[in-house]
Amino acid sequence: MSFTPSRILVTGGAGFIGSNYLLHCVPSYPAAQFVNLDLLTYAGNLANLRQIESLENYHFERGDVADPVFIRSLFERWQFDTVVHFAAESHVDRSILDPGEFVRTNVTGTLTLLQAAKEAWKDRFDECRFHHISTDEVFGSLGLEGEFREDTAYAPRSPYAASKAAADHLVRSFGTTYGFPYVMTNTSNNYGPFQFPEKLIPLVIRNASERKEIPVYGKGENIRDWLYVTDHCEALDLVLRQAATEDTFLIGGSQEVTNLDLVHLLLDVYDRQTSNEPGRSRELIRFVGDRPGHDFRYALDSSPIQNRLGWTPKHDLTSGLEATVAWYLDNQEWMDAIFGKDYLAYYEVQYGNR
Ligand code: NAD
Ligand code: DAU
Q: What is the model's pTM?
C-alpha cells in the first residue's frame, strides 16, 4: 500500500519538529505543494524555515487550527489531499500552569481540522490522508521494566498528555465512525536543531553558554528515550507514504537514559566542543523541586516500524548530542532571537513556583 501526497497542509510547521519536517520534505518532493499553517505562538519561528522559504512548492499561512471558519476556507482555497498535523501546545510544565490553552489547541484544534477534512474529502476518502502526530506520553508512566506498544491502554497523567490523548481518541473515532482516512504516530522525546529552549536539552546548552544554573528536577532519576529529530522526520515521511489507513506506529530512538546522566553527557560534549576544562559545566547543575506528577519513564517498542517499513534511526545518543551541541554553537543568533520572546519571563515564573 502506498500513498502519494500532492497538496499537503502541515500544521505547526514553524515549531521544532514541524520545521525540521518541512526542511526535509519540501526540497525532496518538488512536485508536491506544502502549505505551512501556523499561528506563530511563542513556540513558532519562521526563521527556522529560511532554507526553504523561497521554494515555489512552499507556502505559509498564519492562522489558528481551532478557528473553523478559517480552516474551512483554507481547505477550499488549497484543495488539500493530505494533512500532517503537528500544531499543539507541547510543553508539559506549561500545561501544569495553564491547562486551558492545551485543551483549546490540542483537542478543539484537532477536532476542527478533522471536521474540515471530513467535509472536504467526503467523496474521496480513498485519495486523502490525515497524519496525526502524537506522543508516547499518552500511555502514562512506566517503572524500570517494559515498553509501550501500539495496543497499550492510554493512561495520560499531565494536562498536556491528557489533551494529546483526547485528540488521538477523536482521530480514531473519525476512522471508526466515518471511515475517515488517518494514520497516527506516537513518538518519544525529540532533540536537535530549532528546539525551543524551554525543553531540557536546549535549555542546558543555553544555560551552560551563559554560565547559569542548570535545573534538574527531583533527583534526575527519571528516564526518557531520546530520538534525533531528523530521524523522526524520516520515519514520519515513511509512515505517511507507506502505512495502511488506520495504522499506528510508535517511533522511539531506543536511547534510554536518566535525566542526570543525559545532562552529564551533554555538558561533557559542550565542554569538549568549547575547549572548556573537563567538568567545568557540571558545576552548574542544581537539583530543584520536582515537576508535579512527573512521569518516571517512557520507552517504546519501535520494532513494528523497523520491521514493516524498514526504518532505523541514523543517530545514537552520542552522535546526536555531538550534532546538537555543534548546531546550537553555530546558531547563537537563532537562540538570541528566541530569547527576545516571552521566554525569560516564563522561566522566572516557573522557578518562582519551585
Ligand atoms: P512546538 O511547541 O515546538 O511547536 C508547536 C507549533 O504549533 C508552533 O509553531 C506553534 O506556533 C504552533 N501552534 C500552536 N498553537 C497553534 C494553533 N492554535 N494554531 C496553529 N498553530 C499553532 O512543538 P514540537 O515539539 O515541534 O511538537 C510538534 C508535535 O509533536 C506536537 O503535536 C507534539 O505533541 C508532538 N510531539 C513532540 C515531541 C517532542 O519531543 N518535541 C515528542 C512527541 C510528540
Ligand atoms: O515524550 C515525548 C514528549 O517529550 C513530548 O510529547 C513533549 O512535547 C516534549 O516536551 C517532551 O516532554 P518531556 O516533559 O519529557 O520533555 P522536557 O524536555 O520538558 O523534559 C525532559 C525531562 O527532563 C523530564 O523528565 C523533565 C526533566 N527536566 C526538564 C526541564 C525543562 C529537568 O529536569 N529540568 C528542566 O529544566
A: 0.97
